[in-house]
Each structure stands twice: as C-alpha cells, then as structure tokens.
Design a protein that fits this description.
The protein is α/β, with parallel strands linked by helices. It is built from 10 helices and 18 strands. α8 (about 185-205) runs parallel beside α9. This is ornithine decarboxylase.
C-alpha cells in the first residue's frame, strides 16, 4: 500500500537507488487487527519477515511476542524491549550450542520435530518447554513450506513422549499451513491433527497446554484476500469444533500479514528492449531483482502490484527482469506483466506489498550491487 506518508518521504528525500520504505502506521493497524480478530491468542511476530529495529520496538511496545529463527533474532527481540518470556525459538533445526546460548539468555520455549532435536534441547536447555511441529499439506498457499519442517502426527506423539521422558516439559503442538494462505478453512485439518496429538498424550498422562497455529496470514498483492477478522472467525470456529469448551492456550505467528502491506520498494527502469526485430514482447529490466530482495518471485509465486506514473497509458504484457548477470534473475516471464507501453529508461516504479521478506532476502553485494536500502517512517 503506497500511503501518503511513503509518497511524501520519497518526494522529499529522493533516495538514490532501489529502496524499501515501510510505514509504521500500517504495521500498528495490522497488529490491532490481529489482536481484535483473535483476542485470546498470543501474537508472536515472525521476526524473519522484517527484523527492522523500528518495527520490533513498535511491536514490543504494543505487547507483541516474537517468533525467532536464530540467536541473532532472539537478541534483536531482546534489544527491542521484549522479555525472554515473550520469545519462542521457533526453528526446528538448531545447533546445540545455539540452544544453549538461547537458554542462557532466558529462552524457555523451543520448537522440535524429531527425537534428535529433543535430545539436543534436553542437553542444552534442561527443563525447557517444547512444542512439536506437525506436517501440513500447504494446499492453497502461494508460498508453500513443503516437507522441510514438521513430522507426521503419530511421530509427534512419540517425540513429545520422549521429551517428557528426558525431563523436558512437553508443552504443545505447532503447525504452519503455508505462507500467503488464501483458504479460510486451511486451519481446520491442522487443528484436527493437533487434537489427536493432545488425546494421545493425555492417554499417557501428559497434558499438553498449547497449540501454535503458525502464520500464513496473507497480505494483499494483486488479488484480494480475506480480512484478519475473517481468518479469526474461521480459526475460532475450527478450535471450537475440535476442542469444544477445552480450548488450549493458542499462539499465532503473523509475519507477512503484519508487515507485507506496510512496505513499498522504489525502483528504476534500467533498460527496455526486445530480443529480435519481430519480437512480440518487450523486456523491462529494473535496478532490483531476485537477488536484490524480490526472491519470492521465484517460480512467479508472489506477484507484486507495480505502479508507475504512466499507468493511464496503454498497457502491454512484458517480461520483467532484474539487473544482475544471472539468467535466473527474471521476475515474470511465463506469466508476463502488463506495463505501460510508454514506460522508458529512467522511469521510477513502485513495487507494493514488499514490506515482508525483501530486505532479509537481499543478497550481500552479488554482482557488486548493494543490499536493499530500507527506511522505516
């Protein structure tokens, strides 16, 4: 969303080169929308989406908790004002020495999805609380999370029993339905799996306390998406369906949904050309591409809204590409992007919905290009 504040910043500051501008007012509004939609769920912001200190400080002040994927992110959340009790080490793939460092910083909540990871936590963070991540199919997600994280529900039962045997607190179950999830009912099947794990653990005398319902909440790109309130109603309905009046403690981990629509990237057209005299389409090259922060255009998964000053002119589909000497640095080719025919070298474009997963995906000096600059206003 290109807000008046962002336009004023760009017009006043005229920053050189491609840059991201994030409007904190939008982040604040998004946090309030999540809190209203699921008032009984604790919000754990996924720091990996955008770890800008200004964003973390704002969210910490609003009462957010934080889902962290590394010790560095844990330290960022602590520096922003979060206490250790408001931080989860949510990565299921951790070095044992990093678990020990996190535990030394006061972190007591860790994600696991295997017996081997449980053993590391038991050695490095004795007595800690653990939750086991369960696999989901990710159907309906525009950025699926595949099979890298989680285990099947029956293994989750075994993992949590093993954690209990090793002196850890088997605290709950987690899942992630897939990033940019557009199906309101996606949480239903995952919550059914979570309930089955709860029941199996109860039969063995272990009472789980928490369901971490992950992220997946979308931001608006070219297509409309349901509101946070609509997701909240669907998720609460699924919780009631599967847990009845014994709804456990719940966590949500919005990342993209918290900051995606708060950011806009300003970029510039470097070249407009064709590959032959009778080529039916143009190639438009920008000064930013996959290696400059737009990695989520891989397989053309995320399709960003692009605005120009010439949008009232006639449009024509084109191939959109980045500036690096790498043939993979093409953003949209299979499904070409409509841009003004009059678009020319030196024109600025605004790429909306880029507040999440852009600065953190930006390469460090690939081809000598600087990492994506970012401004938080």
């Amino acid at each position: 969303m290109t807000t008046a504040r962002i336009i004023d910043f760009l017009n006043t500051r005229r920053p050189e080169g491609p840059c991201l501008v994030v409007d904190l007012d939008i982040v604040r509004d998004n946090f309030k929308a999540f809190r209203h939609a699921l008032p009984d769920s604790a919000i754990y912001y996924a720091v990996k989406a955008n770890p800008a200190p200004e964003i973390l400080r704002l969210l910490a002040g609003l009462g957010s908790n934080f889902d962290c994927a590394s010790v560095a992110e844990i330290e960022m959340a602590l520096d922003a004002g979060a206490t250790p009790s408001r931080i989860s080490y949510g990565n299921t793939i951790k070095k044992e020495r990093d678990i020990a460092r996190a535990h030394g910083l006061g972190i007591t909540l860790f994600a696991v999805d295997s017996h081997e990871e449980v053993e590391k936590v038991a050695r490095a963070a004795p007595g800690a609380r653990v939750f086991c991540r369960v696999l989901t199919d990710g159907e309906g997600a525009e950025w699926p999370l595949s099979r890298k994280f989680g285990c099947v529900p029956q293994m989750a039962v075994d993992v949590l029993v093993y954690a209990h045997q090793l002196g850890l607190v088997s605290y709950g179950v987690s899942f992630h339905v897939g990033s940019q999830m557009t199906k309101l009912d996606a949480w239903d099947a995952a919550l059914a799996d979570a309930k089955r794990v709860f029941v199996q653990l109860a039969k063995q005398g272990i009472e789980l306390k928490m369901v971490n319902m992950g992220g997946g909440f979308p931001t608006k790109y070219l297509r409309d998406v349901p509101s946070a309130e609509a997701y909240g109603q669907a998720i609460f309905g699924a919780l009631k369906k599967h847990f009845g009046n014994n709804i456990p403690e719940t966590i949500i981990e919005p990342g993209r949904g918290m900051v995606g629509n708060a950011g806009v990237i300003k970029a510039e057209v470097v070249l407009v050309s064709k590959k032959s005299d009778n080529d039916s389409h143009r190639w438009v090259f920008l000064d930013i591409g996959k290696f400059g922060g737009l990695a989520e255009t891989m397989d053309e998964a995320i399709r960003y809204p692009i605005r120009t000053a010439r949008d009232t002119d006639a449009m024509e589909p084109c191939v959109l590409a980045g500036p690096t000497c790498d043939s993979a640095d093409v953003l949209y080719e299979k499904n070409m992007y409509p841009l003004p025919i009059s678009l020319t070298i030196g024109d600025e474009v605004l790429i909306e919905g880029t507040g999440a997963y852009t600065t953190t995906y930006s390469a460090v000096a690939f081809n000598g290009f600087e990492p994506l600059k970012a401004y938080v206003i």
